[in-house]
Amino acid sequence: MSAASPAVPRWLAAVSGTLSLLGLVGLLLTLALGFESPNTVLLAVSAPLVFAAPLGALWHFVTTRTLTPAEKRVWLRELAGAEVFSALSDYMSSTDLKASTQRRAAERIARNHA
User: Fold this and answer.
1) What is the mean pLDDT of the chain?
2) Distance (Å, whole) CA 31 – CA 38
3) Which residue segment(s) compose the domain that 108 sits in?
4) CA distances to 10, 28, 42, 73, 93 from 101, in Å
5) What is the pLDDT of residue 1?
6) 9-20 pLDDT, tens digit each
7) CA 105 → CA 11, 58, 101, distances in Å?
8) pTM score of the predicted model
9) Is the pLDDT confidence value at 57 over 90?
10) Closest CA to 94 of 69, 70, 71
């Protein structure tokens, strides 16, 4: 049985996911509470936090050595495609990135032939 390829560290997925959710909540509060006069401080803090999960995935993607250039191209296509949120979730939560890469590539081929 082969060992699973290293995935995104759990701490990175947890921290960046939590920060992104806090950012979304902050944006919703800005919209709800600041309808007539927006709270610029809340907006300025919340907007960058929304990007914590995508930036965490990007940091891991750039620094990882476990994925081959071909596998990275698969992830780039997935992360730039119509199912970006599904791909981001899969990338951040996968316990075996190589297996997830192969599955997503096979699914893309099936979608293209359908």
Assistant:
1) 90
2) 7
3) 64-114
4) 19, 34, 38, 10, 13
5) 40
6) 999 999 999 999
7) 27, 19, 6
8) 0.81
9) yes
10) 71
